[in-house]
Automatic annotation (TrEMBL):
Domain of life the protein comes from: Bacteria
UniProt protein name: Germination protein M
Xref: Pfam families: Germane (PF10646)
Lineage: Bacteria, Bacillati, Bacillota, Bacilli, Bacillales
Signal peptide (UniProt feature, chain positions): 1-27
PROSITE patterns assigned to the protein according to its UniProt record, in alphabetical order: PROKAR_LIPOPROTEIN
Location of region: Disordered: 49-68
Domain GerMN: 99-190, 251-340
Entry keywords, A to Z: Signal
Length: 360
C-alpha cells in the first residue's frame, strides 16, 4: 500500500502585543497578537484525498461556532456628545484580522451600532468598507477604504483621522498610519485637505487645544487626560496641548498642564487642586518615574488619601511618554499614600489595561 504524507505549511504571521499593559483602564488581549495574518494553508501530496467526511465537517463547524462566541477587548476611538475623540474599550468577536476589524467597528451603522456607549457615535461614514490593511516593516500601517470614506462633514475630518490613528496605534508594532481610497494613496484627507503626508502618528495629537498659544513654532505637544461624564459615569478624554520648548522636562510640563486643568469652555473636568505642586524634579529609574508632591495632591480628601481620578489622570498622561511604564507618588518625600478604596499606594502604578471600562 502506498503511504501518503500531508505536509503542512503555516503562513508567517506578524506577532503583536497590545501597546500597553498593567491593570485598570486600558484594554489588552494577550491571546490575540496578530494584525491580519494570512490564513494557514495545508498542501497535500498527489493522490492524497481531502477529508470530506461528516465527522471532519462537524469538527470544523464546532471550531467556527466556538470562535464566533469568543470575544476580546478592543480599544475603539469614538466621538462623544461634546465632539471629543475618546477611547472606549469594547468586547468584539475574536478574529485573526484584528486591525481590519477595529476599523470596521468605527463605521456608522456598522456592527458597533449594537454596542455603542450612551452619548457616543461612530466615526467613519455609513457604508464605508475597509478594503484592506497592510503593515510595513517600518511600523507604518496602510488602511485602504472604499469611496464612501469621503462622505463626511469637513468639521469631522480631523476627528476621523485622529480616531483611525489612535485606534490602530494601540497595536504595538504600529507607529503611524497612511490612508488609501480604492487603492490610491492619499497625501491629504479628501474633504478639507488635512495633511497626511508620510503618515500620521500619536505625536500629531488628539483633541488638540491650542488656546493661549501665540507662537506654535516654539512649542512641543503633550497629551494629558481630563474627565468627562455621561449619565453620571466618568470617563477619560485625551487632550493634546502645546507647551514651550523651554520646558526641558516633559513630565514636569505634563503635571503642570494637569494642574492647570481643562479650558473653561471645554466641558471637561479635573480633580486636581490649584495648590498642587511638585517639590522636586521627577526621578527616573528603569521605566519608573517618581513624583514628589506637596499636601495639595490630597485635594479635599483626608490626609494620605489620593483621588482615584487624580491618580488615573497622572498615570494615563505620563505613560503616553516613551520609556515611562509606571508612576510612583510620594508626598513630602513619604510613600505612605492610600487610594480611595483603602489600598496602599506604596508600589508604582502601571498603565491600566482598560480605558473607560472601569477603574484601577
Amino acid at each position: 500500500m502506498l503511504n501518503c504524507r500531508a505536509r503542512k505549511f503555516a503562513a508567517s504571521v506578524i506577532v503583536l502585543t497590545m501597546l500597553l499593559s498593567g491593570c485598570g483602564l486600558f484594554g489588552k488581549d494577550e491571546a490575540v497578537k496578530e494584525i491580519d495574518p494570512p490564513q494557514d494553508v495545508t498542501y497535500l501530496e498527489d493522490g492524497e484525498a481531502i477529508q470530506s467526511s461528516k465527522e471532519g465537517e462537524k469538527q470544523t463547524s464546532e471550531k467556527e461556532e466556538q470562535k464566533a462566541t469568543e470575544t476580546v477587548k478592543r480599544e475603539l476611538y469614538l466621538i462623544d456628545k461634546n465632539g471629543f475623540v475618546v477611547p472606549q474599550t469594547l468586547e468584539l468577536p475574536k478574529t485573526d484580522a484584528v486591525a481590519k476589524q477595529a476599523l470596521e467597528y468605527l463605521v456608522e451603522g456598522g456592527p458597533v451600532s449594537e454596542i455603542l456607549p450612551n452619548g457616543f457615535r461612530a466615526v467613519l461614514p455609513a457604508d464605508t468598507r475597509v478594503l484592506g490593511v497592510k503593515l510595513e516593516n517600518d511600523g507604518t500601517i496602510i488602511a485602504d477604504f472604499s469611496r464612501e470614506f469621503s462622505n463626511y462633514r469637513k468639521e469631522d475630518e480631523k476627528r476621523i483621522l485622529q480616531a483611525i490613528t489612535w485606534t490602530l496605534t494601540q497595536f504595538d508594532k504600529v507607529k503611524k498610519v497612511k490612508i488609501r481610497i480604492n487603492g490610491h494613496d492619499q497625501t491629504v484627507m479628501p474633504v478639507n485637505g488635512t495633511p497626511i503626508q508620510d503618515g500620521v502618528s500619536r505625536e500629531d495629537g488628539i483633541n488638540i487645544d491650542t488656546s493661549g498659544v501665540v507662537d506654535i513654532t516654539n512649542t512641543q505637544p503633550v497629551t494629558v487626560y481630563f474627565l468627562a461624564q455621561e449619565d453620571g459615569q466618568p470617563y477619560y478624554v485625551p487632550v493634546t496641548r502645546r507647551v514651550s520648548n523651554k520646558e526641558e522636562d516633559r513630565v514636569v510640563a505634563i503635571v503642570n498642564e494637569l494642574i492647570k486643568g481643562p479650558s473653561y469652555t471645554s466641558g471637561l473636568l479635573s480633580d486636581f487642586q490649584a495648590d498642587v505642586k511638585l517639590l522636586d524634579q521627577p526621578k527616573y529609574e528603569n521605566g519608573k518615574v517618581t513624583l514628589n508632591f506637596n499636601d495639595g495632591i490630597y485635594g479635599s480628601k483626608e490626609k494620605n488619601v489620593i483621588s482615584e481620578h487624580v491618580l488615573n489622570s497622572l498615570v494615563l498622561s505620563l505613560t503616553e511618554q516613551e520609556g515611562i511604564e509606571s508612576v510612583a507618588v510620594t508626598v513630602n518625600g513619604k510613600a505612605n499614600l492610600v487610594k480611595e478604596d483603602g489600598k496602599s499606594l506604596a508600589e508604582p502604578v502601571t498603565r491600566p489595561e482598560n480605558v473607560n471600562i472601569g477603574s484601577f
